[in-house]
Amino acid sequence: MIQFFNTILYQPLLNLLVFFYNIIPGHDLGVAIITLTVILKLILLPLSRQSLKSQKALQSLQPKMEEIKKKYPDQKEKQAKMTMELYKENKINPFSSCLPLLIQLPILIAVYQVFNTGLTSTNLPVYSFIYNPGQLNSFAFGFLNLAKPNIILALVTAISQYFQTKMLTATKLDSSVAKAPGAKDENMMTMMNKQMQFMMPIMTVFIGISLPSGLMLYWFVNLLLTLLEQKMIFSAKK
User: Fold this and answer.
1) Tens of pLDDT along the chain (238 residues)?
2) What CA–CA distance (Å, rounded) separates 94 from 51?
3) Alpha-carbon torsion, ordered 206, 209, 212, 218, to 10 deg
4) Contact 183, 123 (CB under 8 A)
5) Within the chain, what is the greatest distance between any pair of CA atoms?
6) What single DSSP character describes residue 6?
């Protein structure tokens, strides 16, 4: 399994990073990481777009879902059945939003290993057809050491994480619906969403101050691209 992971994800990502590092004028590792991040985002774009469209569709169905809860306030099974029929009628898979996250996780692990190796190794394990620079210069933009943690970059990434999570979980209930007996679960979900808005950035800071800032740069740029993508999809007309 480990060998499969290395062959499919780790080695290609490391070699792609080295390739960009070699061809970018000045051999700036920060620019190479940004370029790699954009490439990965483009590769995963179809999945992330499908996920965001599914979430937007679920938000558009919120009023109808609240009507079901008001109509069957004490019949959980009936609510579940009617909700699934509503999903089916609108051709929505409520679980499709989880797929990009599941795919992103092993990629994030691979990226961490790439930076952990690429930023410290003096003998990079690159393919034979890619020039081996021996060791990558970890300083980016002339001042940022990507091999060491950086609290400022961690904080900036956490702020971006806050806005990304806020946009993703933003839902508003009509006051009359919020008071309905069947809306208790929805109110609980809203409270959980608000907690996530703060928990995710806090976790980002704690993780970021212990990881190489090269990984946080990847995380930050990926969040900016995700924010842009979310804004385009959520603001698009139906």
Assistant:
1) 777 788 888 899 999 999 999 999 999 999 999 999 999 999 888 877 777 777 777 777 777 777 877 777 777 788 788 888 877 787 777 666 566 667 777 887 888 888 777 777 777 888 999 998 888 888 999 889 998 899 999 999 999 988 888 877 664 444 444 444 444 555 555 566 667 778 888 888 998 898 888 889 999 999 999 888 888 877 765 5
2) 9
3) 60
4) no
5) 68
6) I
Residue 154 CB contacts under 8 Å (≥ 6 apart), including other chains = 204, 205, 207, 208, 209, 213, 216
* Structure-token match 């590769």, residue found: 43
- Kindly report the CA angle at 203 between 200 and 208, in degrees rounded to 5? 120
The answer to whether residues 189 and 58 touch, using CB atoms and an 8 Å cutoff, is: no
What does the block give as tokens for 136?
Answer: 């990558």
DSSP letters, 39-69, are HHHHHTHHHHHHHHHHHHHHHHTHHHHHHHH
Range of the domain at 82: 2-234
Of 32, 31, 48, 40, nearest to 9 (Cα)?
40
The answer, as to whether pTM is greater than 0.90, is: no
Closest CA to 136 of 35, 33, 5, 7: 33
**Burial class for 150, CB neighbours closer than 10 Å (0-12, 13-18, 19+):** buried
Q: Please state, in angstroms and rounded to a whole number, the distance separating the CA atoms of residues 226 and 49.
A: 10
Q: Number of structural domains, the chain? A: 1
CA angle 163, 83, 175 (to 5 degrees): 55
Contact 228, 51 (CB under 8 A): no
